[in-house]
Amino acid sequence: MPKPGRLTLQQALAAFVQAHFHSLTGLLLLALLVVSVMQGVEWLQDPYRFPLRVVEIEGELRHLQKAPLQQSLAPHIQGGFFGVDVAGIRGVIEGLPWVYQARVQRVWPDILSVTIEEQQPIARWGEAGFLNRYGEPFVPGETPGLSGLVRLSGPAGHEQAVLEQYRSMAKTLAALDMQVTRVALDQRRAWHVELANGVSLELGRTHTYRRLQRFVQSYREVFAARIDELRRVDLRYSNGFSVDWQQASTVTDEGKG
Is the distance from CB of 149 to CB of 133 less than 8 angstroms? Predict the structure, then answer.
């Protein structure tokens, strides 16, 4: 016989179950729910149950073709509607040179919709690259039909600075009906400009805007009448410039810097 005030093991277990009956029931139900959800997810992710049958490619495509894109994505859509790796597919697409960004989404019941924003080249960069409208470089490989773009070059990391400088120079020289075809920033950070008529402008490392304005202001008086003979204008002087004509060279001021 147990002593008064003490419980047997069976009594203690019965008391514990009675006190925690609702908690144990809740835990059991939760465990059953978790197992059911896991089994449901596994069932939904079965690629044979909800296969993706269509890959839709949307977007204004000029350099990419839909059929090769669809073929390149085929190995990546084997996970079915619920199991397909949407983020992974977006990464594959955005890894293509002509793709700026992509949006990938599922469309019930069997469609993978891909919307692509292509790179928009506005300038050549270096030997084989291009700059998009944000000043970001990319190298797409074959580039038919893009020979008319302005050529820009400079040290790595200076793409946006060179693009901004080109835009400023092009706007300034447009007042003279002159077109910029090349802007280069060399390793010494000196600026070189070539125009569509073959004229070269040397602007140096500092005061580039002021020096270009000096050329614009002197154009009608000094250059306009002999523009076909003009070859090179060196504006790296304190207040003047030197000029290379087809047959002679003229220095209008000293103190190049």
Answer: no
Q: Are 205 and 190 in contact (CB under 8 A)?
A: yes
Residue 164 and residue 133 in contact, taking contact as beta carbons nearer than 8 Å: no
Residue ranges, comma separated, of all CATH 3.10.20.310 domains in the chain are: 54-118
pTM for the structure as a whole = 0.74
> Would strands 200-204 and 150-153 be described as parallel, antiparallel, or unpaired?
unpaired
pLDDT digits (tens, 9 = 90+) for 47-103: 556 788 889 999 999 999 999 898 888 888 887 888 899 999 999 999 998 999 999
Fold entry, domain 54-118 = Ubiquitin-like (UB roll) (3.10.20)
pLDDT digits (tens, 9 = 90+) for 104-135: 999 999 999 999 999 999 999 998 899 999 99
The phi, psi pair for 133, rounded to 5°, reads -70, -15
Question: In angstroms, rounded to a whole number, what is the distance separating the alpha carbons of residues 110 and 51?
Answer: 6
DSSP E strand boundaries for the chain: 54-58, 99-107, 111-118, 123-125, 129-131, 137-138, 150-153, 180-185, 191-195, 200-204, 230-234, 242-245, 249-251
- In CATH, the number for domain 123-251 is 3.40.50.11690
Nearest alpha carbon to residue 197 among 219, 229, 171, 165: 229
**CA-to-CA dists, residue 10 to 3, 17, 211, angstroms:** 15, 11, 100
Report residue 167 as tokens. Answer: 């835009």
Token readout for 163 is: 């693009």
